[in-house]
Design a protein that fits this description.
Blueprint lengths: L1 E4 L2 H4 L2 E4 L9 H4 L3 E4 H4 L10 H4 L1
Antiparallel strand pairs: 1-2, 2-3
Length: about 55
C-alpha cells in the first residue's frame, strides 16, 4: 500500500510504502514500511507535491 502526503515538508511531498500480505497491512508488515521524498528521487522540492496523484 502506498500513501501520499503532498503537503508534507512545505508541499514538497512524501510517500510512505507499507508492504502487504493477502491479509492486508498488519503490524508485522508495517515493520517493513519506508518513506521517501524528493531527495531520494533527486527531484525538485519546491511545491513538487510528491504523492498528490496517490492522494486523489
Amino acid at each position: 500500500m502506498v500513501v501520499g502526503a503532498p503537503g508534507e515538508n512545505t508541499h514538497a511531498g512524501s510517500l510512505w510504502v507499507f508492504p502487504t500480505t493477502a491479509s492486508g497491512v498488519t503490524a508485522v508488515t508495517a515493520k517493513g514500511a519506508f518513506t521517501f521524498g524528493h531527495g531520494t528521487l533527486g527531484t525538485v522540492a519546491t511545491a513538487a507535491e510528491l504523492g498528490s496523484s496517490f492522494n486523489r
